[in-house]
Amino acid sequence: MRRLWKRRLLWGAVTVACLVLIYHCPFRYLLGVACPGCGMTRALLAAVFSDFETAFAFHPLFPLLIPAALYLGLRESGRLRLTPRAENTYILLFAGLFILVYVLRLCAGDPIVQPDFSASWLARVLHLLQR
């Protein structure tokens, strides 16, 4: 029981640290390229305030996080457990769907996922090395 609370505390601390310290996408910050999850935080915040049109514009897969979070909570509490094979299958489907939507958003010219290399950390380092 104690171990479960330690894990919950660790996950809570990691979540808070990510929200506070890494407010912006680390991929975009370092490389200038958006990750497949870019816009998810803004989508969830828009959904919290019942602005679902904006939420879907930020990231169309935000509703999938609700069952995923419920499953993770139930799994950690020991109330629900899938077989490792089923869990891996769902993870691969989830990741594949995110990548598919990411590629479609890139092809459609979605401004949220458009690359901006000039503002990246990598571009700054390369600029300094060229001097």
UniProtKB/TrEMBL annotation:
Keyword Membrane belongs to the record: yes
Pfam families found in the cross-reference section: DUF2752
Record InterPro entries: DUF2752
Name listed for the protein in its UniProt record: DUF2752 domain-containing protein
Domain of life according to the entry: Bacteria
Annotated TM spans: 56-74, 86-104
Sorted UniProt keywords: Membrane, Transmembrane, Transmembrane helix
